[in-house]
Structures are given as structure tokens and as C-alpha cells.
Amino acid sequence: MRSPRTMISVGAAIVSLALVLAGCSSGDDSGAGSETGTLKLWHYESANGAMGKAWDKAIEVFKTEHPGVTVEFERKAFEQIQQNASMILASDQAPDLMEYNKGNATAGLLSSKGLLTDLSDEAASRGWDKALSPSLQTTARYDEKGVMGSGNWYGIPNYGEYVMVYYNKALFKQYGVAVPKTLDEMTAAMDTFVAKKVTPLGMAGAEYPAGQLYYELALSKADRSFVDNYQLYKGSVDFKADPLKYGADTFRDWVQKGYISKQSASLKAEDMGTAFIAGKTPMIVSGSWWYGRFASEIKKFDWGTFLFPGNKLNAGSSGNLWVVPEQSKNKKLAYDFIDITMRPEVQTIMANNGGVPVKADLAQVTDPKNKELIANFDAITKSDGLAFYPDWPVPGYYDVLVAGGQSLINGSKNPDQVLADLGKAYDQGVQEIKNG
């Protein structure tokens, strides 16, 4: 979820589908340095974010190495791509290269429809398969039914991401709260804030944050077999039992105790993030995609991060994928651009701006916070602690999760009812995938 996990800066326009489909470019697939034509590139990273800055550098390098090629770059909104990808990629207006969300419900679905180019040969010949650890490869490969973890390569990630707790150090100091190391310490810290009439945890019920918190709470009681069953269909999933029941019950309990505002049901992730930037919120539970933006925009107080207390499993994965639409007119140019984004010079820019690169020169990372961010991700991957995201298992599940999160916040449904809705949509989706 972000899977709307990468963020557009405030004021980015949501362009209509008509504009999305506007314009079509063609080009030549001849050798590097001699090409002419156009590379049509779309992504949805903010200009001041880590990936946006790194990929701006990649565009600069690409232009230098391909002087006869014009780069037509368009920054899209995440939801714009999320909602219209199948329609866009089935048309002759598809870009040559696009950032797209990973997982069964997104990249997996498009690959099973034949809308994405098989990148397996390029991954082998260009060494991408060696640059990415097995856990990061999970989201790059999909079988014929669009289930991640095996099969051909349909996307290439060049960064990682994971969910953590961001906290306002000034507010923690003001109210005498220590950084929690266990879930019990986390609830005690939130009790302290509530006693001072401060809502401790920022939230956004209208988009992904609520679902991610529910999942983090469930993961506090989960093991790898649960993740394999839930995400990869290796076994059955019981929505009436822990860990999912614990996740929903505890989420609702946190709302009732005042840890989460009931008014947050209608808020979007941007609202949650800007409130934290403004210094109004002690904590938010969200992803590393915010890190670069917070580093750039927070000037009036010190802030930090910690892993969700006590969890051995955390929501996270490779970052979003570079995908090459099957309708791409310049596939060779697209492959060349992907390759540039994997280079240490581009990866190090990402690292120094709050990103989580897969192949940076860490000796060139200067900021202690950035080193901590990358070190925490390395620790998670080395312990097999990436649990992917709660909306990934089946197509359309993101909307079901958002609705469930809103219900838990506003109290329109109790946890058992929400879990019943989630279970029904999950079971139906899994059956549809298994039946082809």
C-alpha cells in the first residue's frame, strides 16, 4: 500500500485520463550512443524526494550517453496510475518505461494479462539478478497467474522500502516519553500523551496508513508461515483468529483509547504527513518513502525513527518497479535507463537524500540518519523480516482494506465485521487467481 507508498509533493495535479492518454512517441532501438527518437518515461516520485532526485540524475546521465534521444518525462500521481494502468498499457499510448506498484494485485495482475515485457534475459545479461537479494527479487518475478516470488522477471526495483515509526523528538522530550522498545512500552508512551490531551498517533483512514497499522499489529503476533500463507497462498488464512484478529481488535482498541483520532477516518496520507511535518503529531506509522521529504521539509524540530517495537516482521519489500509495457516502442532505451538507475552514482544520491538503495556506496553516505535508515533495512532483510504489504494478495484488495480501516476508526463496523469483509474479498480473490 502505497502501495500508494511513494508520495507526490503538495499541489501535484491529478491529471485526467484524457491527459494521461495524450501524446504518443516513437523511436529507434539501435545501439547506445547512436539512437535517435524518444524515451517516454513516467514515474510518480516527488521532485524533492530521494528517488525523484536520484532519477533526475539518471535522466541527466541518459541524455549524455544518448545524445540523439529526447526524454519525455511526465510525473504522474500514484492514484492516477493505480486506477488506470490496465487501460493505459493496453493502448498504443503506453509509455516506454514506467514506475509501477509491485505485488500480486498490481504488477502481477498486469503481467498475467500480457501487458508487461518479460525482462528475464535483460536481468541476467545486465546483472540485475545479481544486484538484488532473493528477498528483493520476490516482487520482481511473477508466475503465469501473476503470483509473485517465482517465474519471469516483469519489473526491476532499484530501492527498498519498509514501514517504521517516525517520531517527534521535541514532543517526546516535552512530555517525558522514551523511545519504546516493546509494544507494551509503546502503549504506555501513548497513554502518557493521551493523559496530556495529545493524540499520539497520526493516521489517515482514507488511504493506506490505516491498513498498514492493522498489518503491523497483526505481524506482532505472526511468523513467516503466516506471511507465506497470506501473501503466497502456501496455506489457509483464518480471518477469525490471530494474528489478523489481534490486528483488527487492537486497532479498534487504540481508537477507543484515544491513541488515534476518530476524525482521521476521512484523512489522506498527505494530511497525515503534513501534520507530522508541522510538528503537530508525536508519531506516525508509515514507510521509508517519507524519509527524504521529512529530511527536506522539517526545519523546526528534531525527529527520528524506530522499528515497530518488538516486531520481527515488518511491512516492506523492494521498492516500486520499473516496468516496460509490452506496447513500448523503445524497449532497448528503457533497459538502458533502468541500468543507469542501478549505478552506484545514482544509488548514492538516493542514499544521501533519505532513500534505501539496493546498490549504494555506503562509504559515500554522509548523514547519520540516512545510514541508520539503510542499516535498519539491511537488518530486516538479513533476518528475512520483510512481510510485504496487506493489500497485495489479490486484485482490488486495497479498496477493501481502506474501507475496513475507515470502519475501525469511525466505529461503523466492529472488528469481527471488518475481518469478515476482508476474509470474503481475500478468499474470492485467491480462488479467482487459482482458477486462472
UniProtKB/TrEMBL annotation:
Domain of life: Bacteria
UniProt entry tagged with the keyword Signal: yes
Entry keyword annotation includes Signal: yes
Annotated signal peptide: 1-27
PROSITE patterns (alphabetical): PROKAR_LIPOPROTEIN
Coiled-coil regions listed in the entry: none
SUPFAM superfamilies attached to this UniProt entry: Periplasmic binding protein-like II
Segments traversing the membrane: none
Gene3D superfamilies: Periplasmic binding protein-like II (3.40.190.10)
Keywords of the record: Signal
InterPro entries, alphabetized: Bact_solute-bd_prot1 (IPR050490), SBP (IPR006059)
Name of the molecule in the record: Extracellular solute-binding protein
Organism name: Kribbella ginsengisoli
